[in-house]
Each structure stands twice: as C-alpha cells, then as structure tokens.
Design goal:
This protein has about 210 residues and is an alpha+beta fold. The chain has a four-stranded mixed sheet with strand order 2-1-3-4, covered by helices on one side. Strand 3 and strand 4 form a beta hairpin. Helix 1 packs antiparallel against helix 6, helix 3 packs antiparallel against helix 6 and helix 4 packs antiparallel against helix 5. The longest helix has 24 residues. The protein is globular. The two termini are about 35 Å apart. The mean pLDDT is about 95.
C-alpha cells in the first residue's frame, strides 16, 4: 500500500471541502472518484469506510474519514502548510472546527430535510435550535477575518464551506457578517482551483 496521500471523493459531495483543503496544502495527492450506490458501496471502498460515504483519505497507512477529522489530521500532518494555528489560538481552532462538525452539520441536515425540533425538546438536541446555532457561529465570525487568531487555518476551510453550502442552497438567509467573512475566502487561489477541478469533474459526468 502506498504511503502517498489518496483522496476518495465525489465532486457533488462534502468532498469539495477536502478538495479545497488539499489544494491549500500544496502536497501531491491522488484522487479516487466514487459514485453513489455503486463504487461507494463496493467491498473495496467499504473496507476503507464501512459507512460507504465520502470523503475519506488514506495517508501513510492511516485512513481518516469525516470532514472535521480529515481537516484536523491534514493540518497536523503537513505543518508547513500553516493550516494549524499557533498554540495560543488552538482553543478557538478546535472549538469552531468541532462546532461545525456538531451543531452546524446537524442543522444543515435538519434544514435540508425540513425537520424542526419541537420547542419543548430543544434541550435534548445538541444544537438547541437553528437560530441559536446560527447566531452562535455569527458571533464567531463577525468582525473577524479568520475564525481562529490572525491567520487562515483548516477551521476556516470547514466552517466557511458549511456556511457557503447553506447559503448557496437557500438553507441559510444571508447576513452581513457571513458575507464579510466568506467573500475574501472565496477569492483564495486554492479555493478557486478546487472549485474548478470539481466543476470540471461534474461537467465530465454530464
């Protein structure tokens, strides 16, 4: 088995998040494109991720799944990329990375399927309510260029990608704080390259 970096994805998936992060890394990687319902559920891939979903990576004999885990792993594995913030900013880095993996992912899914937590059950839901989770992440990005300290990090890739997806698919109403945070990130060369790569893959599939 190769020790190189292998990226398992579908261009119409959360794999777009990891594609962006990989382009920020600048390290060589191999891409394996999988299709829903076929190769994603085939024995070879289920041996990598029994959930049969993407994205996933394989690096130096290790398999990592789940977007937040992949982001955190790669930032740590490639410190020269600068995607892991200085120690004094790690608290915010991990806080908001995993807030995105928990409450933000949960409300993303709930909103997409039209599910709302009854008011008397909100204490049982990790995100409380849609508005509470969105207000909370707004407070983290409002007036800030980056979410953890004064430099771009893997947490910005993950948090901004989820906000961007929700805005693009009409699951989140625009807010000035989100626009101010997202727009400079959308101009990053690695973001643009990643979107171009996945757009070309989508177009090739017809």
């Amino acid at each position: 088995m190769s020790d190189g970096l292998v990226f398992y994805t579908n261009p119409q998936s959360r794999g777009q998040i990891i594609r962006w992060l990989l382009e920020e890394l600048g390290a060589p990687y191999e891409t394996v494109i999988l299709d829903y319902g076929t190769t994603m559920k085939a024995p070879d891939y289920l041996a990598i991720n029994p959930m049969g979903k993407v994205p996933a990576i394989r690096h130096k004999g290790q398999v990592v799944t789940e977007c937040a885990a992949i982001c955190a792993y790669l930032a740590d594995a490639f410190p020269e990329s600068g995607l892991l913030p200085a120690p004094q900013h790690r608290g915010a880095y991990f806080r908001w990375m995993f807030f995105a993996a928990g409450p933000l992912e949960a409300i993303f899914t709930a909103k997409a399927i039209g599910w709302e937590v009854p008011a008397d059950k909100q204490a049982m839901a990790g995100f409380g309510s849609f508005d509470l989770a969105i207000d909370t992440i707004e407070s983290a990005v409002k007036g800030s260029t980056f979410i953890a300290g004064d430099s771009f990090s893997a947490a910005d890739v993950y948090v901004s990608s989820l906000l961007d997806f929700m805005l693009r698919f009409g699951l989140l109403a625009p807010r000035p704080a989100f626009d101010a945070y997202l727009e400079p990130l959308r101009q990053r060369p690695a973001y643009i390259r990643a979107k171009e790569i996945d757009a070309a893959l989508i177009a090739a599939k017809g």
